[in-house]
Amino acid sequence: MVVEFSGIVPALAVPFKGHEVDFELLSEHLDRLLRSGVDGFFVVATTGLGHAMGIKSKLELVRFVAENRRTAFMIVNTASIEFEEVKELVRESERVGADAIASNVMYYFKVDDEGALKFFTKVASLTELPFFVYNIPQTTGYNIHPRLLRVLKRELKNLVGVKDSSANILQIADLATIDGLKVFNGADEISLPALIAGASGCVSALSNVVPELFVGMYRAYREGDTSRAVELYRNILEISTGVKDLQLNISIYGALSVLYNREFTLMEVFRPLSRSEKEIVEKAIRNYLERRLSSN
To answer: Which of 13, 213, 231, 263 is 20 to 30 A (C-alpha) from 124?
Structure first.
């Protein structure tokens, strides 16, 4: 079956008990996202602490999401600084029926254009699954610019898209002109402008928290209801602005703890929210929930 890679795709947040995935709460989280109408999942993601997980936990997570995603598509981020681990995750993604794999460049070790080209070529060659380049320069230290993506699109037969988290709207617009390349914006604060610039959808951290806003915005925009899309986008911006000074994972996990009325816990190696941070997150989420309740 050919998958139409588009729409709202949460960069799946994953709750933990110590260093083990809390699959009970994750099941509840997946169910809520699916009922909200999300189109897919980006798994082993930055938001879900994928780069900090061991291979055993990564494989368990991929299997679990594959079994519980219903009709949503699934893109598995296979990035690792250990290439044998990349290969193992690619093989498991194929086995469980993932729809695509993705990878950022090698992190920790600095790369240049030639190194990035070689790395992506090697990863893509491991499989016939559709392949997404994952650009997140704020953590890898390297921006995968449109010029390199044009080269990769010509040379890699299974390259179908890019998840770009640069928050650079001009870069998003340029990427969207590459023929046959699906562009997913990964920066929540430019979610609607990115769609206008030609993006196929959003791989979003904040959509873990307010999936209904992202799904509603996307559908309104696609249906030509610009005023409704702008209204929902402003709600997204207000929530994002309310927690913008906090670290990404801390803000998302804190907000999910408020929503589920139980701790949506970070891996134990990460610090928890401080009392003041909890107050910031609670205020942003409760303000939204109160407005939503009053409008119904």
So the answer is: 13
